[in-house]
Design a protein that fits this description.
Layout lengths: L1 H25 L5 H31 L7 E2 L8 E7 L7 H11 L4 E4 L1 H6 L1 H9 L3 E4 L12 H19 L5 E2 L8 H9 L3 E3 L3 E2 L9 H11 L5 E5 L13 H16 L3 E2 L2 H5 L15
Parallel strand pairs: 1-6, 2-3, 2-8, 2-9, 3-4, 4-5, 5-6, 7-8
Helix pairs in contact: 1-2, 3-9, 5-6, 6-7, 8-9
């Protein structure tokens, strides 16, 4: 999710800011030849950052090599989608979301942060009791590629433990924070009998600029059959919690009604994944 924003910031704003600052501070001090070399260096750094982060974005969005063990969407012409929520449970927003889902009789999958599940077992229990699915989102919302192997195993195992202790169910699904994964995560997921589930359409509800109407419009204007829709019931851009998810709560009823009006059926993640044609499908990229 965040990668697209960071790419824009780093590739566009940073080189420009550095160039302008350098021009102000050094333009009248350095010899013209040295200034020219410095400017070339700034441009080269900007291009290098763009290539590096662009490569990371491709890795997250599309992956590299065979990905039979990961799901982004289901390739089907049937108008079915699944709702998923990351980073909870939140004592403020998750109950409100559950109330809306209950009112509309709509299923969803909640990818819980283990530390949050430990603090709010009653909400985890309610999620399961009301027929929704629970997934693993690591214990502390770690960045998987930079996390040690043993710590990563502990992040996954302890999250499963806290979810099972609270709700009596073992998580069938795993979603790495920010969609960042590596070979070790895939191996641990296989050993722990969990399916890695990413997403194909993000609501971008984590962006401060996204109002409830904009979240609704984004989903309804981009949705495709077989999509796995991404929302958040807790979290923050760089932290595992703390941001307001009120706009997500406000948008959810309109999104549900809008999907129905367009002929879509909202199904559980398990039902969606039961359809043939599970992606990866490189011809149909995810929408961020």
């Amino acid at each position: 999710m965040e990668l697209m924003i960071w790419i824009r910031v780093l590739v566009v704003l940073i080189p420009a800011a550095v160039g302008m600052a350098a021009a102000v501070m050094l333009g009248r001090v350095l010899p013209r030849k040295l200034w020219s070399r410095l400017l070339q260096g700034v441009v080269a750094i900007g291009i290098s950052l763009g290539l590096l982060l662009g490569g990371l974005n491709v890795y997250v969005n599309f992956g590299v090599g065979p990905q039979e063990d990961m799901v982004r969407r289901v390739a089907t012409e049937k108008k079915i989608v699944a709702l998923t929520f990351d980073d909870g449970p939140s004592p403020t927003y998750t109950p409100q979301i559950l109330d809306i889902l209950a009112e509309y009789q709509v299923p969803a999958a909640f990818f819980a942060v283990g530390a949050h599940a430990e603090r709010h077992p009653d909400i985890v229990r309610r999620i399961a009791e009301e027929g929704h699915e629970l997934g693993n989102h690591t214990l502390t919302h770690v960045n998987v590629p930079t996390t040690g192997t043993l710590q990563l195993a502990a992040e996954l195992a302890l999250t499963n433990f806290h979810i099972y202790e609270a709700a009596g169910v073992y998580p069938k699904y795993l979603r790495p924070p920010r969609g960042m994964y590596d070979r070790r995560l895939r191996q641990w997921a296989e050993l722990m009998d969990m399916q890695i589930v990413l997403w194909s359409l993000s609501s971008q509800d984590w962006l401060e600029t996204m109002t409830a109407p904009r979240i609704t419009t984004r989903i309804l204007s981009r949705v495709r059959p077989g999509d796995i829709l991404l929302f958040h019931d807790s979290g923050a851009i760089v932290r595992s919690e703390g941001a307001s998810r009120l706009r997500t709560v406000q948008a959810l009823p309109d999104i549900i009604e809008g999907l129905w009006a367009r002929g879509y059926e909202i199904v559980s993640l398990a039902e969606l994944l039961a359809y043939p044609g599970v992606e990866p499908d490189p011809d149909v990229p995810p929408v961020y």
